[in-house]
């Protein structure tokens, strides 16, 4: 018999297909998109986009470091960035703006840091 509080079983997380829309500069010709199976993968993808930019601008460096503010500055300087997340309950994609992406990236990075402990 257990006297402690019972934990409710967690509902399995649904995979929410996510599309990240990016416009690198103000020019519409720089628009592209990235396709991910989940929001979590999409947030890793946003980090990867920044890391790829760092590698491109620092070709001789093997060890590149950055902090969250650097990543957010990169996201802010893009021509545009948004996300479309599929919501099964309504059968449609829901749009999210750049600030939502930054909040979710921060949450993702905190979760990643917690797993490394």
Your description of this structure?
The protein is of the alpha+beta class. Helix content is 40%, strand content 21%. The chain has three helices and four strands; from the N terminus they run E-E-H-H-E-E-H. It has helices at 39-57, 68-77, 98-115, and strands at residues 18-23, 31-36, 80-87, 92-96. The chain has a four-stranded antiparallel sheet. A hairpin with a 7-residue loop joins strand 1 and strand 2 (31-36). Helix 1 crosses helix 3 (98-115). The protein is globular and about 45 Å long. It starts with 17 loop residues before the first strand and ends with a helix.
* Strand order within the widest beta sheet: 2-1-3-4
Number of strands: 4
Q: Main β-sheet, in a few words?
A: 4 strands, antiparallel
Round the mean pLDDT to the nearest integer and report it: 88
Low-confidence runs (pLDDT<50, min 5 residues)?
1-5
- What order do the helices and strands follow? EEHHEEH
Give the fraction of residues assigned to helices: 40-55%
Radius of gyration: 17 Å
Strand-residue fraction?
15-25%
Question: What's the short version?
Answer:
The chain is built from 3 helices and 4 strands; from the N terminus they run ββααββα. With 117 residues, the chain is of the alpha+beta class.
Would you spell out the secondary-structure blueprint of this structure?
Blueprint: E1 18-23, E2 31-36, H1 39-57, H2 68-77, E3 80-87, E4 92-96, H3 98-115
Helix pairs in contact: 1-3
């Amino acid at each position: 018999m257990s006297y402690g509080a019972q934990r409710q079983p967690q509902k399995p997380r649904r995979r929410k297909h996510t599309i990240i829309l990016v416009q690198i500069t103000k020019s519409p010709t720089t628009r592209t998109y990235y396709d991910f199976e989940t929001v979590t993968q999409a947030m890793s993808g946003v980090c990867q986009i920044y890391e790829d930019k760092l590698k491109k601008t620092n070709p001789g460096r093997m060890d590149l470091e950055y902090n969250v503010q650097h990543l957010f500055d990169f996201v802010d300087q893009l021509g545009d960035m948004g996300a479309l997340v599929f919501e099964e309950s309504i059968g449609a994609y829901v749009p999210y703006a750049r600030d939502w992406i930054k909040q979710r990236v921060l949450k993702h990075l905190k979760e990643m840091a917690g797993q490394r402990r």
